Structure formats: C-alpha cells, structure tokens
Amino acid sequence: MSERTELRIEAESIISLVYHYSFDEAEKRISEMEKAEDDYPCYAIAVCLRYMMEDYRDINQMPFWDYEARILPVDQLNEDKITASEIWIRVLVSCVKSMTVPQDERKKIIGKVSSLVSSDDMDIGPYILVQSMKAYNNLDSNPGQAVRILKECYEKMLGVYGKDDWRVIAVLAELASAYTDYDKPEKAIEVGENAYKEAVGYLGKDDSMLIMILDNLASAATVLYNDDTKGYPYLRDAYDICLKTLGADNPKSLDIEEGLEIALEYMGKNDEILPIKENTLAVCLEKGNKRSLASAYSSLAGSYHDSDAKKCEELLLKAYETAKEACKEDSIVFRQVLSLVRFYKEKGNEVKADGILLDFFMVLVDRCGTDSSVAYISFIDLFAQHFQFLQLPLSLFKAALSRIDADSMLYFTLLTEYAVRLKQSGAIDDAMGYYKEALSFAEKHFTSESEAYAACRLNIGIAFEALGNRRRAMRYIRECIEIYHKLDTHSKDSALASYNLGIMYIDEGRFEEAIPLFEEALAFYKKDGNNVQAASSAFHLGISYQESKKLEKAYRCFSEAYAKYIAESEEENALISETLIHMATLNIDMGNYHKALEQAKKAYDIDKEIKGEDSYTAGFDLYVVSTSFWFLKRYEEAAKNAMQAIRILEKYDNDIQTEAAFEVAIEAYEKLGKIKRTEALREEMRRRFR
C-alpha cells in the first residue's frame, strides 16, 4: 500500500470519527498527523481536518490567535507535484473562515476548486466537497452554487460507494442543510428525510451520525413554518441520541440542548428546561471537562437572566473563569466573554463590561506576544464587527495602549485604530495627534516604501481633509499613492487614496487629473466585489469624463454606476436619481432626447418621493425634463415643466439654474406663438437677473 493511499485511508477514518462526534479520538490522530510538518500533504490534511473538527465541535473554529501560524502561503500551490485532492485541501486551509487572505484571491482559488468538482481523484472527497461548498457560500452568499456542488458530489459518491455508506449519507445530509441555506426548506426536508431513512437502515436508529441529520431537519422545519416549535420533535430525538451515544457534556449535546430550550420556551414549557440544564451541569462537574463545563454554566445562567440577576451573574462569572482555564488550546472563552459582557451592558454596568473586555484583551496579548497584531484583530473582529451591540469605548483603547510595549506591532495597530475611532467620534484634532504618532512609529520601524507607511500617510491626509486643510491633505494622499505605485500594489487603502484624491481634484475642477485616479479605484473595487464603492467610483469617473468633454466614456461610466446601484438597492434612492439625471443630460448633449426624457422623468419621480416635490433636486429634474421636451418639439409640455421648475428653483437662490429654466420657458412659449407670455417672461427675467 502506498504512503498516499495510507494517508487517504487515515483521513477518511478521522472524518468518520468527526461525523460521529468522537472528537477525543479524532484529536489524538490529528495531533499525530500534525507532527509531520516536513510532509506537506500530511500536514495540510491534518490542519484541514482540525478545522473540520472544530467546526463540528462548534467552538467558534480554530483559535483566532493561532490562525496565521497554521495557514500555509497561497503560493505553495504546485499542481505538478500534488494531486487534485491536495489542492482542495490547500484551498480549505487558505479559505475556510479566513480573515487574512484577500477576497479576490479567495475567489480565484474557489474558482479553481469548482473546476475540480468533476475530478476522478476523489481521495477524501466527501469532506473536501462539503467544506469547499461552505467556503464558497461564505465568500459569495451563493447557496445555489453550494447545492450544485453537493448534488454533483452526491451523485459521484453514490456511484463509487453505493447508498449504504456513511460518506454518501454524510454528503446527503449536508445537501439537505444547503437547501435550507438556499431558502428551499421543503426540499431540505425531503432530502433530509431521505438521508435519515438511509442512515437508520445502514447505521441503526441510535447512531450518533443521525444527530447531524435531525439537527438539519429541525432547522429546515423551523424555516419552512417560521416557527421554532416545528423543529422540536427532531431536536428531541437528536437529544435522546446525544445522551445515549455522546453524553450530556459533549459539545454537540450542549448545542442541541440550546435548540431544545428555544423550542420549549416557544411552547410555554419552561418548567422542562431547568431540569435538563441542571442535569447537564451536574454531568459536566462530575467529568471535569472544562470546555463543556463553561458552556453548561453559561446555559444555566440564561435560565436565571430575567428572574434572578445575582444568580445569573454568578454563573456567568464561573463560565468565564472556567473558560479562561480551558482556552489554552481553543477559543471557547470568546463565547463566555461575550455572554458576560452582554449581561453587564444590559444591566448598565459599563465599568465591569469594559473590565472584562480589557482582561480578555490581555489574555490574548499573553498568548500572542506583543509583536503580532493577531490578538488585536481577534478582539476587534469578534466584538466590534460580529456583535454590533458591543461598541468598544475609546477608554478601552487608551487603557490597552498603556499596557502594551510601545515598540510592538500590536501597539502600532491599536494606535491606528484608536485614531480612527477618535476621528469617527468627531475629535479630529486628537485623532491627528495619534495619526502622527503612528507615522513616527512607521518611520522608525518600516521602510519608506512599505504599505504600513503608505497607510499612515493616507490616514493623516484624510484627517487634514476633515480639518479643512486641503493642501496638506492632498500632499499626504499623493505621497501615499506614489508609494503604492512603486510597490505595484493594489489594496483597499490604495483604492481609498485614489478615490479621495480624485474627489478633491473634482472639487478643484482638475477633471483630467481625476480620471486615472477613479479608473484605479474602480478597477480595484470591481475586482474586490464591492459594488457600492465601484458604483461611486464609476459615477465620479463619469463626472470627470463629462467635464472633460468625453461624452461617450462618461455615459458608459454612469450606466455602470446605475447598474451597480440598482443591484445593491432594493428601493429607489438619491444615488440612483442623481446618476439618472447625469445620464439624461448626457443624452441631451448626444441628441438622444427620448432617452433623456425617460431618465429625467424617472429621476424626478424618485426625488419627489424621497426628498419632496419642492426639493432643489426635483426642481432641477424638471428643468432637464423641460429641456428634453423642447428638443422633442413638444413645446406645451416644455413650457409647463420649465415654469414648474422656476417655481421650485427660485426658492433656493440658484440664479444660474433658475435663469436657465426661464430661457427654456421663454423659447417654448415663443415657439407656441404666445408673444405676450414670452415678453412678460423676458421682462421678469431682466428684472430678476439684471
């Protein structure tokens, strides 16, 4: 038997253990594989299997602070030396739940993954396909693609192994889950029931693999009927199997128990919840598994949240302290920190909430050391992004800065973020001081042609702009762009720098100089998949082209902006109407009067709805409508809309635009032969604008 075949068999054996929630045994065998760091395929597969296990164990994935140490560089891919399945493995190590690999790079890799779905080299195919589906889904919110991949996988696995095989059943169960994500719960239940039937026939009615299938069925039933009680029968069966096969202290048992609690609450059977949780806690105390014990404390605390705040706090503190003891190798402490901070926030005790956050931050620093920003990234990602109700106070950043080595990367990262938060709070002068300190750090520790150095100059430039010092703002941002050009690097910061400088150039009438800047920003945002920023870049590029008399290019840009704004918005908004009115004025210049009229009318309808029929924008829209009618020789309508535009525009003291509307009205009445009306308007116009 070849080494590669042995590796494949071992991997599938571990996958089977994970699907059956035998995590302790899986942990031992994965640890052995991880020791082979000089054997790339073995080590890569081990890392990937660990991600899978942590996912199924539901403890928030691998430790955030360990992520960068484990991930292998993307450029290590070498299709001439490794098989297709190892490329799949590499993809997952790079992509699944990744916080560091750029999105455009992940998309490129996922595209490669998708092209390998039909590969004959299945190796550890069930898991690879399932997890690739999850990675794709996380990147592009494309559950339809996930369903397609899993269906192909299921058909292929069925042909290779037959229906009575745990791998085939596992893929069928994941397909049911994907249908739920795809918002097709009826199909999810149909496929899930089929998976359950096959599993019972092959594995027996008490096999732990049924837990996953029943859990998926519960989710589908809840979604289908929009009713948590509909999933209860499935959860009850799943929990019974958990107790028989895994024990009450197993993470999956605790997860199912949480779903049961929600269903029982909706059913008004609160008296059944407490005994279940107390029994679970007793088992966890007896067995001494700190990971499970922390979750049990936290779960029981939830039952006292409304009835006994003191008891709830006591249990949450026990959960937190237990989690800190247990978090040497995993991230369960995250959940307990979150629960405790949420409790203190709800009770209005900001001091204790901040104290827990700062304490946890220092735990991360101790784990990572201060030469890495991973601790900080973990901290911010978890609390400031995933859980919006926790807005980290500025005082917390200041306290953290006082505890960190001032020559460490972590200090630099915190310093920059603190300056950003100060700027967002309106304290621009204070923010500037910290931005300058960050720049001093960069000058000391980085080369003058590094991304970090460029980012510092960008931040200072943006701060100067906010302070109204445009000259200095432009100088700093130009220097930032020059560094990125020398590095031949395109990133969010480089795109932001180009975009901001382009806006300043437009304000100064330097349209030709703005064009290449918006072209750079647009190219990046399109590649990055950021439709909103791409639309704004295309819009301003359109303005730059329009003012530079490059009308066809301008129209293409506005059309692209319009399409992207429409794609991102479920309702009409000011950005859409503003783009439409620019397209309308361009169509007038290019002689496309019918199209101009259609666009101007649509812009008016939007602005009238969201800003009011007497708003300036509505008045300007009517002026463009009247101009379109005039060129179409529909003079009655031109005059009527021009007069309505005058009535609105004159309220805003915009003489140039009001005078233009007068001219349209006068010329329209003149064409209609209404001499007295024409002369009266001319006299009024002379009186107003002499």
TrEMBL record:
Pfam families: TPR_10, TPR_12
InterPro entries in the record: TPR-like_helical_dom_sf (IPR011990), TPR_rpt (IPR019734)
Transmembrane segments: none
TPR repeat boundaries on the chain: 495-528, 577-610
Source organism, top-level taxon: Bacteria
Keyword match Repeat: yes
Keywords attached to this entry: Repeat, TPR repeat
PROSITE patterns assigned to the protein according to its UniProt record, in alphabetical order: TPR (PS50005), TPR_REGION (PS50293)
Full protein name: Tetratricopeptide repeat protein
Organism in which the protein naturally occurs: Candidatus Ornithospirochaeta stercoravium
